[in-house]
Design brief:
Radius of gyration of chain A: 17 Å
CATH architecture of chain A: 3-Layer(aba) Sandwich
Largest sheet of chain A: 6 strands, mixed
CATH superfamily of chain A: P-loop containing nucleotide triphosphate hydrolases
Number of helices of chain B: 11
Order of helices and strands of chain A: EEEHEEHEHHHHEHEHEEHH
Distance between the termini of chain B: 58 Å
Number of strands of chain A: 10
Distance between the termini of chain A: 34 Å
Oligomer: heterodimer
Largest sheet of chain B: 2 strands, antiparallel
Strand content of chain B: under 5%
């Protein structure tokens, strides 16, 4: 479904991703793990088009999206739920969700989708007229996830969904992501919490200094002594 | 000299005048709120758009003999187009540039526009004829000119329309999203370049509207934009930088201060009164009156 070959991304002169290749099949939950600065977030930004890569090729459903505009990539079905939640703080919960469906014109379906999300997250419904910036961290994360789903994506990119959340909310967030995948949406997730990420995902890529150093199924990597030592603190 | 003996009628008259002036100040302030408060472009040329609106009104009505009511939307539309052109030609290249660089470029735009006005229209003050009866509307003990009443009604309508655009339309929501978090707005599929152009054009159009409305009330001179810029900045800062309700109320506060100051203190200090108030308010509440609050994390 998604194929990345020889991806190179730079911030100015600093290379953040060097020759990265990976692949994601339809319906998979794939995670990228690695230390700070390994190039995980940069890879997601390259996929969603916010950071045009210097070299390499990204294809999605057979279409080359390497230097496509974020708008085009979203239209093709890739939603990006950014690091730090990034809700629009001075807009209401409702307006944030509306921004999620910005490119859609099917009004009736948008309303249905919103109703479904409100059923799933009743707290968002009761706070729908509140400014998103006044929500708690966990509520903001639910809103950010819901906003990403409002585009009816085929593939969702999650960047550090558990960052800065209380432990019970971390658990809840991972449950939500599992639920999204269960509905047939493909998921690519970047996660610092390597243990949780490996447990959750079908396959994982271990990134180090902008390259893939290891790849395998979640359980393979969980039992890999190198991964254990470097990322699981065992 | 008016205002030496305060009485009720006089106070009412001042309040009425302030309300009418406040409407156009609010337009000017909302326009700059979009550009400076929200886009963060320190737009010293804002007042020039105000002057441009007035001169376009003069062009259509006095030079080309167009109908007054037709000339008004045309003048505003031309202001929108000039704003869009400025954004496309100057600001698009400066996206992400230092705020100082942008500021200098906008000072350049201000000087250029004002000199072009001077060259085209000469420095002689122009007046614009209106279709309104010259005898004022008398309501009990107070009176007001039909022209000023018209200005007030149109200004209020434009303020209402701007609110509706910003709060209710898809474009308005995309504007707010873009200036709260540009990268995330792009992830939602918003065309960031288009939003920048549209916002600058809308803000410019509101300044041009204020000029086109007030041009026929006062006279039109090339330097009329200078004080308009200063007042617009004062209103935006007073309202809490980026708050549209704040700029609306700020516009009215400034008008009241000027009108009452001119009436009861000295008309010579009319323009000074407003700035004096702003100094006092900012000393007491440095974030302005209506700064937005948010919870981080």
């Amino acid at each position: 479904m998604l194929k990345i070959e020889g991806l190179v991304c730079r911030y100015g002169k600093v290379a953040a991703v060097r020759e990265l290749s990976m692949e994601v099949a339809q319906g998979e939950l794939v995670s990228l793990i690695g230390a700070n600065g390994a190039g995980k977030t940069t890879t997601l930004k390259a996929i969603s088009g916010v950071l045009p890569p210097v070299a390499g090729r990204i294809t999605f459903l057979g279409e080359d999206i390497t230097r496509a505009a974020p708008k085009r990539i979203l239209q093709l079905g890739i939603a990006h739920c950014p690091e730090g939640r990034r809700v629009f703080p001075h807009m209401s919960v409702l307006e944030n969700l509306e921004m999620g469906s910005y490119l859609r014109a099917d009004r009736a379906d948008i309303t249905t989708d919103m109703q479904n999300l409100f059923e799933r997250f009743p707290i968002l419904h009761s706070r729908r007229h509140q400014a998103a910036g006044t929500l708690s961290g966990g509520e903001q994360q639910m809103l950010a996830i819901s906003r990403a789903l409002m585009s009816r994506p085929k593939l969702v990119l999650f960047d550090e969904p558990s960052l800065g959340l209380a432990p019970n909310l971390v658990e809840r967030t991972f449950e939500i992501i599992k639920g999204i995948r269960a509905q047939g949406v493909t998921v690519v997730m970047v996660e610092q919490n390597a243990f949780a990420a490996l447990e959750l995902s079908d396959r994982s890529y271990v990134l180090d200094q902008g390259r893939v150093t290891m790849t395998g199924t979640g359980s393979e990597l969980l039992n890999n002594p190198h991964v254990k030592a470097a990322y699981l603190g065992a | 000299m008016r205002g030496k003996i305060p009485n009720m009628d006089q106070l009412l008259q001042h309040i009425l005048n302030a309300l009418i002036l406040g409407g156009t100040y609010a337009l000017l302030g909302i326009g700059l709120t979009l550009i400076f408060g929200i886009m963060r472009v320190v737009n010293f040329a804002h007042g020039e758009l105000y002057a441009f609106g007035a001169y376009m009104m003069y062009l259509w009505v006095m030079v080309l003999g167009a109908n007054f009511y037709l000339a008004l939307p045309l003048a505003v539309l031309l202001g929108v187009m000039l704003g869009a052109a400025m954004e496309l030609v100057l600001l698009r290249r400066l996206r992400g540039a230092d705020i100082d660089t942008t500021m200098l470029v906008m000072i350049g735009a201000w000087i250029t526009l004002q000199n072009v006005e001077q060259m085209t229209w000469s420095g002689v003050a122009k007046s614009i004829n209106t279709p309104f009866p010259s005898s004022p509307l008398v309501l009990g003990s107070v009176s007001l000119s039909w022209n000023r009443l018209f200005v007030f009604v149109v200004a209020l309508a434009l303020i209402g329309a701007t609110y509706a655009v910003i709060n209710r339309t898809k474009l308005g929501k995309a504007m707010r999203a873009t200036f709260q978090d540009r990268d995330t707005a792009a992830l939602m599929g918003v065309d960031i370049n288009w939003i920048h152009t549209a916002t600058f054009a809308l803000g410019s159009g509101l300044a041009a509207a204020a000029g086109a409305l007030l041009g026929p009330v006062f006279v039109v001179v090339p330097t009329m934009g200078d004080l308009a810029s200063l007042k617009a900045f004062a209103i935006v800062i007073l309202g809490g930088l980026g708050s549209i309700p704040g700029a609306t109320i700020g516009g009215f506060i400034l008008a009241f201060m000027e009108e009452l100051g001119a009436g009861y203190v000295s008309s010579g200090y009319r323009d000074a009164m407003g700035f004096l108030l702003i100094i006092v308010i900012l000393l007491v509440k440095p974030t302005g009156l209506f700064a937005q609050k948010e919870r981080i994390g």
